[in-house]
Amino acid sequence: MHKSHSRNCRQEILCYGMLWLMGMHIGQFMVLKTFRRMNDEGVVPRRFTVAGVLSVFAETGELHNGRIIHGFSMKMGYDSGIAVSNSLIDMYGKCKCIEDALEIFEMMSKKDIFSWNSIISVQEQCGDYDGTLRLFDRMLGAGIQPDLVTVTIVLPACCHLAALMHGREIHGYMIVSRLGKDGKDVDVV
Questions:
Q1: CA 151/CA 156 separation, integer angstroms
Q2: Given CA atoms 95, 105, 83, 150 in this order, what sign does their dihedral have?
Q3: Does the predicted TM-score (pTM) go above 0.85?
Q4: What is the band of 55 on the pLDDT scale with cuts at 50, 70, 90?
Q5: Three-state secondary structure along the chain?
Q6: What residues contact 169, with CB distance under 8 A and at least 6 apart?
Q7: For 84-93, what is the mean pLDDT?
Q8: 46 or 9: which leads in pLDDT
């Protein structure tokens, strides 16, 4: 690895950490102000920083500023990256903009377990339990294996729909896959 690349990565990690802490303790206004100042001073935030800033706006429910960062990520071409896309899904979902979250998800060329868990969670949190189960079935059809997070999101949707058989199938999957609280002990769940 080139020495300047290593230094840039460390700087970005430091910037991301500072922005995230500022967002959690000082507020999203300071995060956006710092983000803009970085840009004004010629420090181009990378995908990692953009994803972190989006996470702050997701946690604070700040849709307007999240859209500003989304626009920046599009301008920079970062929105095609999986980490930024996952952060956008999370931000739009927590801001109750389900259509925007779905649009980002559908545009993704590659989806990982975090992508699927994020969009399934958005559906569940917004009360679209049928949509939650449809996405879960799509995830399985895409060959993505559910993890404990997926199961934790999907089981309440089964309860809301009184989908007992679906819930039993998921519980059976947990037992066979040895998913549990500590990754091994399914009796605790």
A1: 9
A2: positive
A3: no
A4: confident
A5: CCHHHHHHHHHHHHHHHHHHHHHHHCCHHHHHHHHHHHHHCCCCCCHHHHHHHHHHHHHHCCHHHHHHHHHHHHHHCHHHCHHHHHHHHHHHHHCCCHHHHHHHHHHCCCCCHHHHHHHHHHHHHCCCHHHHHHHHHHHHHCCCCCCHHHHHHHHHHHHHHCCHHHHHHHHHHHHHHCCCCCCCCHHHC
A6: none
A7: 96
A8: 46
